[in-house]
Each structure stands twice: as C-alpha cells, then as structure tokens.
Design goal:
The protein is α+β, with helices and mostly antiparallel strands. The protein contains six helices and 17 strands. The strands form three sheets. Strands 1, 2, 3, 4, 5, 6 and 7 form a seven-stranded mixed sheet that branches. Helix 4 runs antiparallel to helix 5. The radius of gyration is 26 Å and the shape is globular.
Length: 352
C-alpha cells in the first residue's frame, strides 16, 4: 500500500451536488473546476492549515449515497485552497481520468477493489447506505494503484460515464463531453493556463458529444443545448443545438471579433442533466483568451523604443530640425503603441 499522500474530495450522489460530476467529466484537461464544503466535512487535521494542500494532487470520488459505494472518477491538481468563514473553498485543474474496463462486470470488480482498500485505510469513515460520511475532504494514500488515462481519451470517458450511470440518481441523465475546438481551417485550440487560446477575427467550431447512458425510453425528451457568449466579443453563429435522442455529436459555431491580443472572454454551455432539476441548472464555463502573436509584439516594442528615444532626444543626429514637433509626434506614437489605438478610439467612440 502506498504511503504517498494526496487529497481526496468526495461528492455525494445527492441533488444538487451530484451534478458537479457532469461538469467534471465534460471539461477538457487543463480547465479548472471548484467545490466547497462546510467545516464539518473537512478533516480535522486540515482545518487550521488548509493551504498546505495547494499544488497537491486530488482524487475526485463520487459516493453512491444510497449504497455507500465509492467510485473514483478523475484526478486534478489543487490550485486554490482557502477558508472563508466556516466554508472551505477549492479550485483545481482537471487532469487524467480513472481508467475503467468497458466490460460492466470488470468495472464492478475495479470499484469493489477500490472500496476494499478504502475500508482498510479508513475504517472510521464507514457510515452505511443513506447516511452522511465525514470527512469528505481528507488526505490519503488510496487510489494510487488505479490506472490513469488522459482526460481527453473519449473511450475512457465513456467507460467512466457508464460506471457513474449505475448510480440511481443518474437514470435518464445526460452527460456532455467537449470533444474538440478548432478553427474552420483545422487549427485546434489549446488549453493554456486554464483557458482556450483563440485567434481574433476567426470562426471556430466546437464539437460536443451528448449521451444518456442509462434511460427509459418514455423519459427522453427533445431539448435545446445552448452556447452563450458575450456578443460584443464573440458572436454565436450556430449557438443552439437540438438534442433529440440518447446520443449525438453536436456542433456549435462562433466567430471571435476584432479583439486585442491577451483580451479575455468566455463561452458558456447550458447543461440540463434532466428535466426535474431545473432549479439547479449548471452550465459549463469556458474561459478564453486571445492569443498573443510574437512578431507584432517585437515590432511594437521596436517602434515604441525608437519613438521613446525621439521624445528624449528629438533632434537626434540633427536629422530633424523642428525638435518640438518631433517630440510631440514621437509621444503620440509611444502612447498609441503602449495603450493601443483600438482602446484609444473606443474611449471616444465606444462600440455598440
């Protein structure tokens, strides 16, 4: 048994907390997600120094509340761990999935083995079916023997979703998976520092896979899945997709406006796991940033340096006799290159 410790976050299959699992499984590796627990759910050894788990790996576990069965689903890396009053707040970068076999019997054996290990290592944490278990945030060595696989492996994603769907609350529940985001000319967008990197003035297509793994036919209702953007920055050209069955590949299309390199925005995809949970509709929040181009930055730096030089020494080498005019023009160039001509124009003539 491993003595190397990592954090564990346990999420119960109780409405509305269980819907966190849908988002944790939907988001690509590199994006961040958050959870929060009140003080009573955090291990006593962590309460006075919760910051020590920052940068630590965390194993995300779904607990079948009705059966007291633990299902490890995904790994992450903790980025934020802080106490706010009697609430502990966490953000973590999503990473690899826990690897499950495609055969249901084999998956069941894998889950049973994990639960045996948990009972051996944490005998005081047993509560039984339909009972709360504490702590839900703790350090442990369990789970290190489970096989990890890329969080963007879609076969592995399907196996994890099928394991999760055995929990009763996920009957007739829809799961989404962001498959790919790419420009129409075929360049894939990368996740950098928890955000998709996009190009200004570019049209993108986002593929999202939709699946209802456990269902009864009478409960499947056609419904819309909607991509929301900030219209002044990103225009949704194909922002609504109709999900009509048990599984489909949905394609959203949007155009990034004339944004400044480094400028931030977002995409938001509605996620309604099933009709009965409209009071707690989650959505997938995807931060984006406009990619910075190296060549324009270098050119801008050179122009700024030259202009700055002429503001200090306007009659450099005696080339230009009217030094005050030179200084004024050079100062204007410095301001434009540092602030950006778009921001200057927008301050006088805001776009609508």
């Amino acid at each position: 048994m491993s003595t190397v410790q990592h954090a564990c976050f346990m999420i119960n299959s109780i409405d509305p907390y269980c819907w966190d699992i849908n988002q944790i499984l939907a988001l690509p590796s590199g994006f961040s997600y958050r959870n929060r627990w009140r003080e009573k759910w955090v291990n006593i050894d962590l309460k006075d120094n919760i910051a020590k788990i920052k940068n630590m790996k965390v194993l995300l576990i779904l607990r079948d509340f009705e059966k007291d069965v633990l299902i490890p689903i995904r790994w992450g890396t903790i980025q934020v761990a802080e106490r706010i009053g009697d609430v502990f707040y966490f953000e973590y970068e999503l990473g690899n999935l826990v690897s499950y076999d495609k055969d249901p019997a084999s998956r069941k054996s894998q889950i049973a083995a994990f639960n045996r290990e948990f009972r051996e290592r944490h005998p005081d944490s047993q509560r039984g079916p339909n009972q709360d278990i504490a702590p839900s945030v703790f350090l442990t060595g369990i789970g290190t023997s489970t096989t990890e696989i890329s969080g963007d492996d879609f076969t592995a994603w399907g196996n994890v979703v099928d394991a999760v769907a055995e929990v009763q609350i996920y009957l007739n529940v829809e799961f989404l998976k962001i498959v790919k985001l790419s420009s129409l000319d075929g360049n894939d967008s990368l996740v950098i520092r928890g955000r998709y990197e996009l190009q200004a003035n570019t049209v993108y297509e986002m593929k999202v896979f939709q699946k209802i793994p456990k269902y009864d036919e009478a409960s499947i209702q056609p419904h819309d899945i909607v991509l929301t953007t900030l219209p002044t920055q990103i225009t949704a050209l194909r922002g609504k997709q109709r999900a009509v069955g048990k599984y489909d590949m949905l394609r959203f299309v949007f155009k990034v406006g004339d944004l400044i390199p480094g400028e931030s925005s977002f995409l938001d995809i509605s996620l309604l796991p099933k009709q009965e949970v409209e009071s707690a509709i989650p959505s997938m929040y995807l931060p984006v940033a406009i990619k910075k181009q190296i060549r324009p930055i270098i050119i801008r730096g050179i122009v700024t340096a030259v202009a700055l030089l002429f503001t200090i020494v306007p009659d450099l080498f005696g080339l230009i006799p009217k030094s005050e005019i030179t200084r004024s023009l050079a100062l204007i160039v410095v301001i434009i290159t540092i602030i950006g001509w778009r921001r200057i124009l927008n301050s006088y003539w805001p776009s609508t």
